[in-house]
């Protein structure tokens, strides 16, 4: 989790450098326009805009960790051909540490991406929402799945080597912070629901 946050923060640094370089491109653009080289100016402008769009992290809410993770997983979902719908409304400060928050969101979205990107799944989409209501933080991740999902003792069971720890991690973190979580699979729809209280 800490490594992922570090990598995402490095992306933020790259964005700052690119934005600095854009000033030089604007000066070049100004020169091209002054010389009447409209077609070259249009090409440069198109390239500059595409570059900015490619690296700009979208702001979903006030919480920087959630913004970084949502941007990262949105890009990953696009590469896998999965539509990720995000509705994130979290405050800047939450009771979880950055590492805990990163672990919960990453494990939830990673599991959803793994299930949804399988060839057998006809509709490839994930809904992720998080918000505050009645002094509690709520999160919901939903996605379609193919085949059978077995839930034992409240946790999904997997036969794949090296998998299954993410759900245990989510359950442990949520429980440690006085919250509740549930994993549900019914009629081809998987849902992870969790909530935990905000400090008084």
| Rounded mean pLDDT score | 84
| H/E element order | HHHEHEEEEHEE
**Unreliably modeled segments:** none
Number of helices: 5
What structural class do you assign from the helix and strand content?
Answer: alpha+beta
**What proportion of the residues form beta strands (DSSP E)?**
15-25%
| End-to-end C-alpha gap | 27 Å
The strand order across the widest sheet is 1-2-3-7-6
Please tell me how large the radius of gyration is: 21 Å
Question: How much helix is in the residues?
Answer: 40-55%
Shape: elongated
Number of strands: 7
- Main beta sheet: strand number and arrangement? 5 strands, mixed
Please give a structural write-up.
The chain contains five helices and seven strands; from the N terminus they run αααβαββββαββ. The chain is α+β, with helices and mostly antiparallel strands. Helix 3 packs parallel to helix 4 (98-116) and helix 4 (98-116) packs antiparallel against helix 5.
Task: Kindly list the characteristics that best describe this protein.
elongated; two-stranded antiparallel sheet; 200 residues; single chain; 5-stranded mixed beta sheet; 24% strand; alpha+beta
Give the topology, please.
Elements: H1 2-34, H2 38-55, H3 64-79, E1 83-89, H4 98-116, E2 125-133, E3 136-144, E4 150-152, E5 155-157, H5 165-176, E6 180-186, E7 189-197
Parallel strand pairs: 1-2
Antiparallel strand pairs: 2-3, 3-7, 4-5, 6-7
